[in-house]
Amino acid sequence: MTGIVKKLVLTGGPCAGKTSALSFLEQNLRDRGWHVLVAPEIPTMLMQHGVHPNMLSTFQEHVLAMQVAFEKELSRAAEMLPGEKVVIIYDRGIMDQKVYLPNYAAFISLVEAQGLNVVEVRDGRYDGVFHLRTAAHGAEHAYGNATNAHRLESVEQARAVDKLTEEAWLGTPHLRIIPNKGTFADKLHHLLSEVLQALGEPVPIEFERKYTVRLTEAIPPIPSSVRVLITQDYLVATNPGVVERVRSRGQDATLLYYHTTKKPTGVCGESVEVERRISEREYLELLARKDPCRHTVVKERTCFVYRDQYFELDVFADTRLPHALLEIELLSEQQTVELPSFLDIIEEVTGDAAWSNFSIAHRLAQKD
Fold first, then answer.
1. I need a labelling partner for 208 at 20 to 30 A (CA). Which of 51, 92, 144, 193 fits?
2. Quick one: 255 and 187 in the same domain?
3. What's the rounded Cα separation, in Å, for the pair 274 and 78?
4. Domain of 316?
5. Where is the NadR/Ttd14 AAA domain (predicted)?
6. How large is the average pLDDT for residues 215-240?
7. Number of domains in the chain
């Protein structure tokens, strides 16, 4: 094939509607010209064949081994398919297993036994993660086991599993929460809109809102959050009007590298963005084109969910920058945002060029 295989994860709590959502996505994406491969939920598949968690203490090891093998073979098959629009949708991803292990250390050991790295799995393996909120949270009348006879959780247990599943994916760059607002059909269409945006249909337009946050002494601890360190450099432009950057993104001594181009559309807070994962070697080669007029931007990013919205809070390492920045990506310019009540938000700066990282890098360079 000549295109790029996109890999998406559909996850969520018990009775979230994943079975129906997978069918809905498959049909709608095929109608739009995508070749769709769907990976089954491995734990359910094992239980359907008589292998249950209470029978084997090594159940999660078998789940992960099968998950890794399945993903590998589906990726190989996808790369051999003709055409440019191929997407794999995984019914749950590797990070979901974190919920069913006694502690984080056990999860790390399980992942490393497969020759994998937790940060790499969470942040670099998939192009988008879509968390369907359990019906036990906002649609209690619909909670049941109609599509999964192996579902055993009560409403309260389902809510707890839903929250743990959400937390397992915190830190991934492209997490979207699909809540129970309106009808189930509304939920499916919300999911489809998010998926199409992740696939760049019709073009990869990014809508974001940005706010300055006051730093009094330190940002208060945010429960259920993940922090990553980002180092960002801008490159000398090769195309007029296009901003080009490279970024390293790390946690626990693991670094991932990205190359991004952004072209503003002229609408406030909207740009066409194309991001791709690159190797460390390519990252270092691209850094040779670093713009000498722009300082390296280093920031600690805290990722968290508030009222079904995925926020990123950036605190800059350079103390000459007096405020933090809160950002959220949206589906459209008209989408409303409910801001976190525990942050001291100063004002919205969406579309304010002075608060773009591109401009911040320039200001810092002038102060050197």
1. 92
2. no
3. 21
4. 205-367
5. 7-186
6. 87
7. 2
